[in-house]
TrEMBL record:
One of its GO terms (molecular function) is ABC-type quaternary ammonium compound transporting activity. Keywords: ATP-binding, Nucleotide-binding, Transport. The keyword Acyltransferase does not apply. PANTHER family: SPERMIDINE/PUTRESCINE IMPORT ATP-BINDING PROTEIN POTA, SPERMIDINE_PUTRESCINE IMPORT ATP-BINDING PROTEIN POTA. Its EC number is 7.6.2.9. It is an enzyme of class 7 (translocase). This is ABC-type quaternary amine transporter.
Length: 337
């Protein structure tokens, strides 16, 4: 039996049907991401597990127990929000110890040991006596994380915990959270609208669109095999061509949309030799934008625009207005719904 089960969860806020018969299972020790655009219901689902929102129908099972109607304080679930929600008048150490003192009567020695261990994990040595206002956003979030893991919850819930933190520090924290989650073997659910964050952190991604799960899978499978236009649009910067557009580029009509990742489109100044397993076409360079070490070219084939990623080493390979040739392997042209 799965460690966490959401069974046919429905939730409405007035006329807004926010969760529509959602069923999903999560295995023990996994880090699972609920990914999707703003307002699609990710946080609401997370909150039904924490007990902060009651579903209209359906059941939530945690570790074999139906917790749907259970008092939130007795669920043994840790939750970390975007707002750090630390006590401003308590030191780092007092904030971390708070959860533990609330939860159970433990000998002082064990409390001290546990605090030392989690401070070590979240790398907050030397900050024990600081107040939250004296810490950076990233440090405050690490205190919030420490305060949650010290109680050894059955599951850790993260609701967009890093969205207020700047990009560089955010990467480091993503990796740190993943490391801590792995080393403790704790089950975690992470809500985000950032596909890169989901890719980097998750064992499994559940992609949401307005109240339902669009597709679930390992990050690599979500990236290489989106099944729908929505999934392809949300993950991996796919070119999405209508049947007529695909026909204009390749001469073939599949009767469905086709998704092509920009990095699978090869470009060169001279025609490609004919191959059974690839499509070829001439194109005109319209524009380009640098993305770190990648140059993303917009090419036009007749009235169809297509993006192609080229590794940017040192020189600009193609200029706007130039005629170029593209080739894309058939296996990289994904038929989608
Ligand atoms: N307490 C509430 N009362 C009324 N409507 C709510 C309430 N909580 C959430 N909603 C609505 O439910 C929908 C889903 O909200 P939810 O927070 O679950 O989305 P989300 O996918 O987590 O998006 P975000 O990343 O913006 O939080 C939204 O339309 C939101 O306005």
């Amino acid at each position: 039996m799965a460690y966490i089960q959401f069974e046919k969860i429905n939730k409405r806020f007035g006329a807004n049907h926010v969760l529509r018969d959602i069923s999903l299972t999560i295995e023990k020790g996994q880090l699972v991401t609920l990914l999707g655009p703003s307002g699609c219901g990710k946080s609401t689902l997370l909150r039904t597990l924490a007990g902060l929102e009651a579903p209209d129908s359906g059941r939530v099972i945690l570790d074999g127990e139906d917790i749907t109607g259970k008092d939130p304080r007795r669920r043994n679930v840790g939750m970390i929000f975007q707002q750090y929600s630390l006590f401003p008048n308590m030191t780092v150490r007092e904030n971390i110890a708070f959860g533990l003192k609330m939860q159970k009567k433990l000998p002082a020695e064990e409390i001290n040991e546990r605090i030392a261990r989690v401070i070590d994990m979240v790398e907050l040595h030397g900050k024990e006596k600081s107040l939250p206002a004296q810490l950076s956003g990233g440090q405050q979030q690490r205190v919030a994380l420490a305060r949650s893991i010290i109680t050894e919850p059955k599951v850790l819930l993260f609701d967009e915990p890093l969205s207020a933190i700047d990009a560089k520090l955010r990467k480091a924290l993503q990796l740190r959270i993943k490391e801590i989650q792995r080393s403790l073997g704790i089950t975690a659910i992470f809500v985000t609208h950032d596909q890169d964050e989901a890719m980097l952190m998750s064992d499994v991604i559940h992609l949401f669109s307005t109240g339902k799960i669009e597709q679930s899978g390992r990050p690599i499978d979500m990236y290489t095999a989106p099944r729908t236009r929505f999934a392809a649009g949300f993950i991996g910067h796919y070119n999405i061509l209508s049947p007529a557009q695909f026909e204009a580029v390749t001469g073939e009509n599949r009767g469905c949309d086709v998704a092509i990742r920009p990095e699978t489109v090869e470009v060169q100044p001279q025609p490609f030799p004919e191959r059974q397993d690839a499509y070829r076409s001439a194109a005109v360079v319209e524009d380009f934008t640098p993305h770190g070490n990648i140059l993303r070219y917009t090419l036009s084939v007749g009235s169809v625009n297509l993006q192609a990623d080229v590794l940017f080493r040192s020189v600009l390979l193609f200029e706007p207005g130039q005629t170029v040739y593209l080739s894309v392997e058939k296996k990289n042209c994904l038929s989608i719904a």
